[in-house]
Design a protein that fits this description.
The chain is mostly helical. The chain has one domain (about 20-85). The protein has two helices and no strands. The protein has helices spanning about 5-10, 20-85. The longest helix has about 70 residues, at about 20-85. It starts with a helix and ends with a helix.
Length: about 90
């Protein structure tokens, strides 16, 4: 390549592409890819926390049932003691 031919090649290379427009599109594409990746990560995080909340809810119900059962047993014991005393 001679000096004149190389500069002509650079000048004519991708003549139909506007550099500023191409740079803007690359920037927008990069930003959109980052947003999509972030949303995907958040979606995965939300999906992984859903079963934990279900388990917590289930354990909460079981705990409340256990407390109620203990209270009933205590009331029955008190009633039996009252019956025995009188």
């Amino acid at each position: 390549m001679e000096g004149g031919e190389g500069s002509r090649f650079k000048k004519d290379y991708k003549k139909g592409v506007d550099q500023d427009e191409a740079r803007r599109r690359r920037s927008e594409t990069t930003i959109q890819l980052r947003k999509d990746k972030k949303e995907d990560q958040l979606s995965k995080r939300r999906q992984s926390t859903a079963p934990v909340s279900i388990y917590l809810y289930t354990y909460s119900l079981l705990f409340n049932t256990l407390i109620i059962t203990i209270n009933i047993i205590i009331i029955i014991i008190i009633i039996i003691i009252i019956i025995i005393i009188y």
